[in-house]
Amino acid sequence: MPFQSARRLYNIFVGAPAISKSDEAIKIGLIGCSNIAPQAVILPCRSHAEAVVWAVAARDRSRAAEFAKKWDIPHVHASYEDLIKDPQVDCVYISLPNALHFQWALRAIEHGKHVLLEKPATSNATEMETLAASPALQVPDAPILLEAWHNRFHPAWQTFLSLSREHPHAGPISKVHCQTYAWKGFVPATDIRLNYELSGGCLMDFAVYNMVCIQDVLEDSRPKVDDVRFRLWDDPVSKSQGGPSGQIDIAVECTLTNKSGVTATLTSDMSKVGDWPIVPRDWSKTWPSAGWPKCVVECDPIGVKDSSPTIEGSKHTLQRTLTLWNPVLMHLWHSIDIVDVHARQTSDGETTTWTEKQTIKAYSWRDVNKNLPGEFWWSTYRYQLEELVNRIKGREGSGVWMSLEDSVGQMETVDKIYVSGGLNIRPTSSLAGNLRA
């Protein structure tokens, strides 16, 4: 097991051995030389016969050339526009700051390019609705536009959903909680994720993962929003450029409720301090700290028919709780913990309780007895690439997807959380505003 874990991490971070490419491989162009591009696209492409990173563009051509040399990308373009117009490029990956997503995604689909668009897809719902309604996406054989919710494609997440929805021991979902944390200092003060003009904020980065996980579990892309609490970041970059102050959230908590009345709590903090075990709170209240990311689903009790003879008139119930540890980067490590609490009450009122526990891991579809492509070392991004290529090639694949309607609902919920918490919706680009006018 340690050897397998080491091999998995090596293949994820260093890259699996490159394989021969099909003559019909999809040529992907990178718009931006982002830190996430190697993990999200470059390394996953090495192990896919039908996908190749073909070109890269950046605002500074010399930076793009340096990036291309480092990652063996054969073509460099002087501008984003030149890359989009390259007839050899089939698909573009956009990993620019959030505020630039809409503009370049729209330009790409208007030129007939498929688009893998980093999350969140746009700055707000207005932009996402405009993008989804683009005439370029309404025609036969329209380009594919996929918002890059990579964790949705991993077998562990789909297994977690199945165990909470379809397993005979899972009663109706009664409560959900999802959390992510990073320690104070993890996100530098000058990071673009803390810049209002670039559509930054915790909700636009860390917390939006929690939100989409909750939407997935609740099967509701537009849940009701309540009890929003933000902790704010003093945004020196935005203020120095004349932007509004007090609009960048560094932490967020809120409650989301679906149409059936099931409630979920969301907690996310990009600069967590305190809560150290053993150490007195007053001592550690400014110390950087963290917490395990997790998604927890509690189910209502259900009646169970005993397989063995029981006392006549007894009543047997079971209540299931599922916890997925590390629901965003499951390829690094994850664990699905299943806790079933049993209670058997006899006719004379005597109750016996006991607990059964089980842990499941699903690094590949084979781990959960499904005959679908995948290796134990595939990352969430590699599974995402598999489905993107399947969709472009017209194949069914696993059936997991992020629809445009899902993306619109997600951005509507982001906007509702900001408004409910007393903050501004992230700025709409002038291009989107003009198209909506």
UniProtKB/TrEMBL annotation:
The lineage of its organism: Eukaryota, Fungi, Dikarya, Ascomycota, Pezizomycotina. Its EC number is 1.1.1.179. Belongs to the Gfo/Idh/MocA family. Keywords: Oxidoreductase. Residues 26-133 form the Gfo/Idh/MocA-like oxidoreductase N-terminal domain. It catalyses: D-xylose + NADP(+) = D-xylono-1,5-lactone + NADPH + H(+). InterPro entries: Gfo/Idh/MocA-like_OxRdtase_N, Gfo/Idh/MocA_domain, NAD(P)-bd_dom_sf. The keyword Oxidoreductase applies. SUPFAM superfamilies: Glyceraldehyde-3-phosphate dehydrogenase-like, C-terminal domain, NAD(P)-binding Rossmann-fold domains. It is an enzyme of class 1 (oxidoreductase). This is D-xylose 1-dehydrogenase (NADP(+), D-xylono-1,5-lactone-forming). GO terms for molecular function: D-xylose 1-dehydrogenase (NADP+) activity; nucleotide binding.
